[in-house]
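Here we describe the complex-level prediction in full. Unlike the single-chain runs in Section 2.1, the three entities below were treated as one system.
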Amino acid sequence: MSIIPPADSPDTRLEAPSGDIDPRIDGNAGTESQWQLIRRRFSKHRLAMISLVILALFGFVALFAGFISPNDPGDVKARYTFAPPQGLHFIDRTEEGWSFRPYVYGYDVEIDPVALRRTFVIDEEKKIYLTFFKRSWEYKLFGLIPTDLHLIGPEKTRDPLYIFGADRLGRDMFSRVAYGTQISLSVGLVGVIMSLVLGVIIGGAAGYFGGWFDAATQRVIEFLRSLPTIPLWMGLAAAMPSGWSPLQTYFAITLILSFLGWTELARVVRGRFLALNGEDYVAAARYDGCSHGRVIVRHMVPAFTSHIITAASLAVPGMILAETALSFLGLGLQAPVISWGVLLQEAQNIRTLATAPWLLVPGAAIVIAVLAMNFVGDGLRDAADPYAN
Amino acid sequence: MLGYIARRLVTMVFTLLALSVVVFVVIQLPPGDFVTSYIASLSAAGESVDQETIIALRERYKLDSPVLVQYAAWLGDLLRGEFGYSFEMQRPVGEIFSQRIGISLAVELTAVVVMWAISIPIGIYSAVNQYSIGDYVATILGFLGLAIPNFLFALILMYVCYNWFGVTITGLFSAEYMNARWSLDRFLDFASHVWAPILVISTAGAAQLVRVLRANLLDELNKPYVLTARAKGLARRKVIWRYPVRVAMNPLVSTIGWVLPTVISSSFVTAIVLNLPTLSPILLRALLSQDMYLAGALILFMGLLTLVGTLISDLLLAWIDPRIRLGMVGAN
Amino acid sequence: MSNDTILQVRGLSVDFPGRKGDTTAIADVDFDLKLGETTCFVGESGSGKSVTARAVLNIVEPAIIKKGAIHLVDVKAGQKIELSGLDPDGAEIRAVRGARIAMIFQEPMSSLSPVHTIGQQITEAILLHQDVDEAEARRRAIEALRAVQIADPEQAIDKYPFEYSGGMRQRAMIAMALGCEPDILIADEPTTALDVTTQAEILRLIRGLQESRRMAVMFITHDMGVVAEIADQVVVMLHGRVVETGAVDQVFHAPEHAYTKKLLKAALGLDDAPARRRETPSDEVLIETGDLSLAFPSKGKLFKRVAGVQALDRVSVELRKGEILGIVGESGSGKTTLARVLMGRFQPQSGQAIYHMRDGGTRDLTDKASFRDGQVYREMRMIFQDPYGSLNPRMTVEQIIGEPLLVNGLLKGADLRRRVGALLERVGLPATAMERYPHAFSGGQRQRIGIARAIALDPRIIIADEATSALDGSIRAQILDLLLDLRAELDLSILFIAHDIGVVRYFCDRVAVMHRGRVVETGTAVQICDAPQEAYTQRLISAVPIPDPRKRHLTAS
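The structure predicted for the assembly as a whole is:
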């Protein structure tokens, strides 16, 4: 009797015995849906879980940028040009003992008589006490609701509060980074959503119809992937009319990013489509009498949504990095708009950088956000197919 | 093999044509033709242009003809080696090219070599010693390498060198060698400057290469032929070098295809931050001033470099992998 | 200890270290290997056979040899080396590997390096263990290739593994193992991935080499037929322990352990099949194909055009009402392509396949339009080979079985649920199983779910493509019996595609034998299996191992 064993893998790792081969159908075995399995797998990925919390924090900052910012990010205060970061203190020690009362130290300004430069010295004598839910400058929550409520602010509104220091024009870096988070994250998200739409439609059509359409799509993708992206992006970005409004530029930039970023997603979608088309259970669905639409929606889409989400989440950091690079070079978003890249433009000059290294804080935001996104993407990738071994 | 090379060359020509169309579209995108914007920028600077020059320029670039004719004229010029005239720099594009291309290529090729030299040993070490401390360090560095944008890395490097060591790392030459002839001293001066951009450019690509190589090698390490080789009595170390590393190298060769675009992209940004005398700052200036003829020629040239690189990697792959050489599997 | 004993294993235990403590892979394994004898290790997957084999060579990472002794005897010098305590990568054990103990594996393709020539891989071992120069090593490699009957070894030596056929690759592996004339050859399921005729050749080759060189062979398999053909001694393993050891005749004819008996019953069960009552075939024809021909177009490769494959070559078969028609052949014979043509997945270049519908009309299955209204799919259902791939892992069993009923608008809501429950019970599963996802079930259970889905629409025909080949012996028999019951009960006709002669003999009424896209012989199952007429069928039938050492016919010299 010859027996063909169940598809054997070419893997020679010795595996520990798995115990009973024939599981009993009892208890709760096999009652979990795909998403429950994915969630369980993902939550075992510790780094990805921590990163998810960090990203949630970034998301909160982006949504409530105005609430979190103690100062108006556009507020120019020549007095505080290049004021260094103040350390936040929470426990106040006075003669009366310890109490929870956040404060920062104030500045003393010394003028260098030779270079005629102002240097800031942190004055430990001057305590600037802070209060929570402070009412100061006005902004619109979610761009709609006008309010002046802020998470934190100095008790006396006129006192300086520069947690991350101030820039060349005395604007508060902390508030600017918070607002930059809003723009930079949303560019990544909107860009990925746009390329997702392009990628899913084109990749899906290529995978489903095959034939010349597939071949042509493949050539186009190969072509786009063989190009050095940054120069081409820049060419497109430079071709934007200079008179456009910030909002128009914003959408043009995201469109450019997604125009060249859809290829990876299309490749994933097409690959999954082709793989699924060969699956027996998809053939079985056709034989069950399902229409084309039902085969796709009911039997194929659920099998690759997790893969698409993974690919999309891994594409977001790339978009953010690209926007940052373009804006940094002056070809992306332009000055009144605040993004991490625009902020870093200020740090281009080595002398400025030497005077005010805190101008690199937006860089730290980029690195942390991109790292967290990569970790979450990795965790998702490992969890995306809970049925593979 | 010859037929394969011929076919690849034909494909490359077509890809290049496609690229030229894309670039031409980019050139055409800004509103108004560039002579108009040139005049506008000149008059903004308070200079005036005589009517004859304008007519000559319009004639020269066939600006009053249909778009297709303009494209053909542009492409024809390029093929004849006439890259046009940079209004911004008031010099022929070809001249700017020949002045800077050597340095550009030198920096980029060195970066590619360094990238491979860094990533291959690390990738092999990481895979062979999976989950060791060294592997974790390499993985963390790799993630950082992917997360830090080039320009940021360049900025940080610049800051650290300036602040802690008092060294300025911008440029490729000290002032006294800037325009000197090549000599040993000038070369040493060049070498003392070039490490910084090379380091910055090669890290991002190296981080990706390490990941690719590590994943490939981990796959190969568990293949049955490794067991076969060990069952022959070969030492583990020898087995790894002779078999899985050899097999895992093949996909690595094919990564040249994306390594080059990456290197060109990242050298671009790095060159601008570190103020290198390469083609990149020229392209940036051309783009910012919408000097599209110069920009177009530069973008096309960078595309050509990438395509040549991809061709080389495909040929190399066919040469080292018998499965491709003997036509059993496709190159892609 | 007799003079011929070359390897003595005592109390061998291998553990997998894990975070939650160690897992035992094998425990207290004892056996001897003797020169000039073949010892078969038999057991299900996961029983520890392969671990035992690799422990002999001391290559078990990430596991560790916990305790026990492996004594390798040098017969001439009368000395013993203990292998289990050696450094797994040290010089001493490496001098043994390949030189005194050689090993071959199941997957000849992946067991050979794809980027080195066969010659490079064979000479490597020779150069490593013998003090010869390259030219001499090459000469010996050519000799080894000749010994394993590879034609034209002078040329074949410079080819790459992918230029060889499956059987040739396994021969090349054997040549590599024999290059240094080892005392012991370990063969880990060396024929499992091969077709039955190729398997017969390889078994014959191993047996022949073993006899002429007086090697000890440690042969690992899960197939009792192969054991009966090649073994002198048998070691039966279960859950990492040896449960029975003995001479082959004694193990087959006087087994002691219950598990051995179970294995034998599963292997022999199908052979007692002729006892099954055959239906008298009716004359009513349901499907008749006429001269179906299908060639897959050639694929343009980089350097040369590969000729297209003639998957079907003027195939004419007919399926009669109430019968089980077996389509038998080796891989690449076109049997699966035929099933796919009948299901409308491929359209042949010529020929026709007429299906007589329930309502008396006819449809040509080679025409895509015949399937458009879905009526054909309601009357003709499919059971797939892979029980894991054929059920959508993201749907519950209720959704899977209910899908055909739902999309055909037959039932919904509580009625659908009731019907699914009834179907599950009909195929031998509890109705409560419907709330679970497929990953809760074993292979056999999943195949039952697939059958429930197939019969949900009350079909007339079932096309079963290798429906039982992924299942273990005893479970396979249960599934076949279930199908037999259902056929009687539901008045089904079954087109059964298989490569396993034993299953065909047990299950089918009539058989069509396919070879290279052509039907070479058609007849009743008994005729084909017991008195084949065509040369190919004879070769095929005679290559099937018989699970009885007294009827040994493949390796008898």
